[in-house]
């Protein structure tokens, strides 16, 4: 099936016993065992639940993996993947990475002797690989500066050195990009974002490319217990069914607004891989089917960024992204506050950097809201 159909009919479709079109919510903690000494399909919902199993099979199908896993949050999913490594191991990461991912590496796993190395340029990745290096963790596009990483090239280099390639595919979703087909070993998602799509659940997903990795992740999932609950699994399946139409609208709006903001005199720079001027534009076109719905831009010095944020009307100022509503955040004090100040400043994640998750509202209304807030926020002479 093509991706639009697979989003609706992939995974475990309906309920065979009753003919229900939708997977039921199996709100149970345990299951009756028919006979001593014989293991039933389900025993305890931490280990397996039919509703969670349905979303796990669905994400595996649409990502082109061998097995999928659903967790209580995106960071729970990332934590499970990082648990694959042991003391002394090193992971290479992109320089502008989601702040929560950096925090769990720097403040939690570092305590267990798992180290990381920040990579500015993946063309020279070999310079960072040593005997302790076990994996490369990338986002593409990155959060929040939307740098594009050549997933196929990085995966090839990783395989050459016996490393795992882990890709956070949250921004692109399986609708636009499939890292496993480009050579990656593990794909992670914050299902909270575009996959759920309605800002009403928190979820994380992992997809692997082989059975051995699948067994290891399942053991970690069962042993540590950070599972997605049945009701949230149901909501996530429902959200994924409309992913294609939502992503098409997100992107249509984002392309329009990115182009308009690029010529706005109050904005210093617009970061969006859909712009031909973006340095990763051609790589993005070659490895993905779209450019996504997130735009980042830098305000000029004559714009009071606090006044700009406070005068938005239609656009919601808050954490997260990927909902049907437009969401704006201030990375330096919100999503990326966990990054060291010197690293934030070096990368340009400063007070004037704004990230906009473009919703599916009317694109003219979204643009007008940004433009009106900018007019109000321009500093007067002497301020």
TrEMBL record:
Modified positions (N6-(pyridoxal phosphate)lysine) in chain numbering: 193
GO annotation, cellular component aspect: cytoplasm
PROSITE patterns reported in the protein's UniProt record: CYS_MET_METAB_PP
Keyword set includes Oxidoreductase: no
Swiss-Prot/TrEMBL cofactor(s): pyridoxal 5'-phosphate
GO biological process: cysteine biosynthetic process via cystathionine; methionine biosynthetic process; transsulfuration
One MF term in the entry's GO annotations: cystathionine gamma-lyase activity
Coiled-coil intervals: none
Keywords: Lyase, Pyridoxal phosphate
UniProt similarity note: Belongs to the trans-sulfuration enzymes family.
Official protein name in the record: Cystathionine gamma-lyase
Species this chain originates from: Clostridium gasigenes
């Amino acid at each position: 099936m093509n991706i639009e159909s697979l989003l609706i009919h992939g995974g475990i479709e309906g309920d065979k016993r009753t003919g229900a079109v939708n997977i039921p919510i199996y709100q149970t903690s345990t299951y009756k065992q028919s006979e001593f000494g014989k293991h039933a399909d389900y025993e305890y919902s931490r280990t397996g639940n039919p509703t969670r199993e349905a979303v796990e099979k669905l994400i595996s199908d649409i990502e082109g993996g061998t097995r999928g896993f659903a967790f209580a949050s995106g960071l729970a999913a990332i934590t499970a993947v990082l648990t694959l490594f042991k003391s002394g191991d090193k992971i290479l990461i992109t320089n502008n990475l989601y702040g929560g991912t950096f925090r769990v590496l720097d403040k939690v796993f570092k305590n267990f002797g798992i180290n990381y190395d920040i990579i500015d340029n993946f063309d020279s990745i070999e310079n960072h690989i040593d005997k302790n290096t076990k994996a490369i963790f990338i986002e593409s596009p990155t959060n929040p500066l939307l740098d594009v990483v050549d997933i196929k090239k990085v995966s090839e280099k990783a395989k050459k050195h016996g490393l795992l390639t882990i890709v956070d595919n949250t921004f692109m979703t399986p609708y636009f990009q499939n890292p496993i087909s480009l050579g990656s070993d593990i794909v992670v998602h914050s299902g909270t974002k575009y996959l759920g799509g309605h800002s009403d659940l928190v979820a994380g997903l992992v997809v692997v490319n082989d059975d051995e990795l699948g067994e290891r992740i399942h053991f970690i999932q069962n042993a540590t217990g950070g599972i997605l609950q049945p009701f949230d699994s149901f909501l996530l399946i429902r959200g994924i069914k409309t992913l294609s139409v939502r992503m098409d609208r997100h992107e249509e709006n984002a392309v329009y607004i990115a182009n308009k903001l690029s010529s706005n005199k109050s904005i210093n720079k617009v970061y969006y891989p859909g712009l031909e001027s973006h340095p990763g534009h051609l790589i993005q076109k070659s490895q993905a089917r779209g450019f996504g719905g997130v735009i980042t831009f830098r305000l000029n010095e004559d714009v009071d960024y606090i006044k700009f944020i406070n005068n938005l009307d239609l656009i919601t100022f808050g954490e997260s992204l990927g909902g049907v509503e437009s969401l704006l955040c201030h990375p330096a004090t919100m999503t990326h506050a966990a990054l060291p100040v010197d690293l934030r400043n070096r990368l340009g994640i400063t007070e004037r950097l704004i990230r906009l998750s473009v919703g599916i509202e009317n694109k003219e209304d979204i643009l007008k809201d940004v433009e009106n807030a900018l007019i109000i926020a321009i500093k007067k002479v002497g301020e």
